[in-house]
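batch job 7 of whatever, protein = DNA repair protein RecO
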Amino acid sequence: MALNLRAPAILLAARPHGETAVIARLLTEEFGMVAGYVAGGRGRQLRPVVIPGNLVELELRAKSDSQLPFAKLELVESRGPWLSEPLPAAAIQWATALTATALPERNAYPNLYSALVALLDAVCQAPSARGWAPALLSYEALLLRELGYGGVKPEASELAEVLSAMEKLADPLQRYLLADRRGDTLAAREQLLARLRKMV
């Protein structure tokens, strides 16, 4: 069956493929997480577009279900300016890597899509991590709930409370969402928590 879709998407991850292409993983509201081959994804023109956290307009085409779709990306909003800031960069890296690792392909999770858009906006707009850390904690808990692993919505507003709640979530995240694939993904979280602890 041919695939042809166009939708706003959050770029979650991009893996080099061949000399200049990338395999991109993107989250859409209606179709869930999808993967696509981006020709020239590492070239000068597309490199600023293929950044995890960026909002893009995605066009995905495939002649059959067995074929990796071709993806065309148009930049809608860039997270590039925040990647030179250690804390926002670590938060964007962790949220996108966690989502790319945990979600199955082509299952719609509209709540997660809108929560991730809101989280990325908060990371880029709040004057400091105190403004977005509670949203990051809520997103981790929502991801566990949406994938069927329960858990209540944590109530924490102060940074010390957020860090304590995030430490409690480490075990379920590791056990349920990152069981076989934790490696670098969990390392991104540890790096982020180490930076947040310095603020307390």
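notes: The chain is about 40% helix and 25% strand.
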